[in-house]
Records
---
Amino acid sequence: MMSNPGDLVLDCFVGSGTTAAVAQKLGRRWIAADVNKGAIQTTSKRLQAIIREQIAAQAQSQPALPGVSPESSPPSPCSLSFSVYRVNDYDLQVQHNEAINLAVELVGIQRTKTDTFFDGTRGRHLVKIVPFNHPLTPLDLQLLQDELKARPDEERDVTVVCLGKEIAVDAWLDDYNKHHPINKIDVIELRTDQKYGKFFLHQPAQARVSIERRDGDAGEDEHIVVEIEDFISPTIVERLEMDTPLFKAHIPDWRAMVDVVMIDTAYDGQVFNIALSDVPEKKDDLVAGTYQLPAPPQPTTVAVKIIDMLGEEVLVTATV
């Protein structure tokens, strides 16, 4: 309502893609975003169908009739293609604050909210936590040194907590500590430290899926039956056990861990074209887990994509 043909429409929480779909139909450019991978897949499928219809309509279009004004015709689409960009490392970034809190608890850091640079203290050491989206680099250490120079009265040593480090870091630290008897710097690397090395021990989600071609009843064509027999997300189980440390997490129905199930019945190994998408409508709804789809006459590769509640994907394929 508030835009004109050719304008750019932004939807930051695209969901099932209604805003982008209407913008495409009404000749607007659009940008659609969502943190949920299932939403992106569903929106992509919806827009692919719309664009195919627009391409077919353009191929069959006739020259404008005399006396028919352009305003009476629907606006032409601004584009007949789109791209999907992954603009962040979802699996790490969406959990970044939680990871920092876990590191604080694990290493024994006392948070300091009044300090604009250092994250807290550990005994008599100042602590700096390097963002977990990159390894510790000499540039990080140079910024730390510059901060210490701006605090000439600071006599405490510094502990840097990081998730990996560049090779050049060790040489930088050796040279720095030789020339600085005060404000020495040590590093706790969470991935390799003997005490904290299991901090980010990740076990991927796994699924047991049955995919088979079955004969139809009398007069019916063959069909493909997909049955998800079991699914486990160790990351979700671990998070539940962190919330209730005195008890082992028990999830009676694997479907409670699944956000969306998508199936491609003609998977080429590169582009996932959704033939079926199972996205529960309500918060308490669960995916079905068993699906029946039309089978092409020739052998085909079926791909089943399962996305859990934390956004981790499992892809299972079979040729039937």
---
Amino acid sequence: MTGSVSSGLAGKVIIVTGAGRGIGEAIAKLFAAEGALVSVNARTEAHVQRVVADIGNSGGTAHGIVADIGGLEGVQRLVEGTVARFGAIDVLVHNAGILPLQPLETMEDHDWTHVLEVNLTSGFCLTKACLPHMKERGSGRVLFTSSVTGNRVGVAGFAHYSASKAGINGFIRSVAMELAPYGITVNGVEPGLVLTPGAEAGTTSEERDAMARFVPLKRWGTPMDIAHAMLYLASEGASYVTGQTIIVDGGAILPENGALMM
């Protein structure tokens, strides 16, 4: 992408969780192309190293931190490592999440708890850990990858995932109220169908084509579609936007019924 004159991200320090591939990778690369200093986080070292190398080869600046932010130790490692490398934190993008398919009848307590810890509780822990650094700067952006699932639509087998994403939206609204006096905004993006490596591996081309027919724009979203929405929310242009989510789904939630599609 050609650098935007209005993003204001040049020199800003950005944390992106779940940045080893898919949506997080696209966010990290797009922000780096805007001149941001990006802390690339994921659980898999090979994925982190590849993204950091790609950013470096494109002229950007990135630092990789391998950590499981599903636990407090991993959160601390990520935040402390970012500050040690770049000296500050301006933007937190909590994108990491898991999406196991588990019917309610066979879901165990630990299955439910694990999804909530990784998708939702880690967002609380990360926000709290980043807050002192943002307050010190007198500004900041906290951004979440939420979902239309759990907030606008339901999908069988994803009760825990749906609950975690609905929880994220509630967290966004309340925390936006609390952090506004410090010049910190809190927002999120709700993706619909996005062709990530995981989605591609879990579906056939025929299944993907069938699903795309129910999207008004007749295609799956790309990770970069979500990254551009995140870029807006992180930019100077969104300085008066807080407590909000942007739906990026190609219009998929608009039809009352699939039979009404043109």
---
Amino acid sequence: MSRSLKKGPFVETSLLEKIEGMNRGGDKKVVKTWSRRSTVVPEMVGHTMAVHNGRKFIPVYVTENMVGHKLGEFAPTRLFKGHTTKADKAAAVAPAAGAPKGGA
């Protein structure tokens, strides 16, 4: 369920203050944040955010297409290594079949 339009998008206040200060000063620094739940607002466009994924900070350059999404969407927390194929399964079974039984 989405957030009420009356309330507006949620952005961590400390993060928004940093971004607005950088916009006033014309700075372009990387901003570290743990706030994955913050919504990307138009003031953030053009800045690089280092979003924490639970292990490390992932640099995310904010573009216009990202407005309205959450910061956490752009810093994946899990590493997908792909699905196994039939050849991979056969290779895993073959060495085990050749091993001697009994262990002695």
---
Amino acid sequence: MKDFRGKTAFITGGASGIGFSMARALGRAGMNVVVADINVSAAGEAVERLAKEQIKAVPVACDVCEREGVRRAALDALAAFGKVHVVCNNAGVAVGGPLGNVRERDWDWILDVNLKGVVYGVETFYPLIKSHGEGGHFVNTASMAGMVSPPGLEPYCATKFAVVAMSEGWAVQLAPLNIGVSVLCPGFVRTRIHESGRARQEKYGGEGDVDPGVGATREESVQNVLNGIDPDVVGERVLEAVEANDLYIFTHPMMRAYVEARFQGIRAGFDAADKSRALKAVKEWAVVTPSTLREPK
């Protein structure tokens, strides 16, 4: 996507953190911005801040756990600006903890926000983008936790791995419609992700403290986040990637080593398969065609 001026971006979790920084970066590039957030008061404050930078924006209430809520927010966006071109499915929460200690309602919460919220965003907006024929782009926020899985962070990683996988598939499906897809995989960013419980809905237990499960202690978890990079850097990085139509958006190049270590383990598994006595009994292998999977490069 090369031309941003006069087009519209819809951003969930847009009132703070990475979401707000994407709103700033895309707004500075000339886009109208819909700040969608579960906290509509915070969204209104974010819009006021954007207005001081001459960015045209509107606040919209949006609980990404509810498909109908996302649809209503989409209608509000269309009422405000007529069309939507870029959708940033960014709203997310963090839950973790030792095996057996994560509550069922917290599993439900993180799956509904981090995974289903992205599904609802893509399924709601892609027909709208397709209908105006001007092309567009999805940015789905995952994490480096969608590439590697530290112990104690399994609920979060499960959702972020899913966002990566879905984005890879959707990128192939949507490319013929001139709709790009990027998956954002940041490392630690200075946000309030460690305070996810501040916006937890009543059906998941209401507002309160939640174990983010990052690091040996909660204090270490908080420090990892507070020592992260400036969210505005991430916003600018997203703008670069959308313009370049990059599938993967990374923010911490030094974390490449962790991903490569995981790949080494995967390669070792394939090496073991090559030497497997059991597999030597297979006489004919099914061929995976490019229509079902990307060809390796």
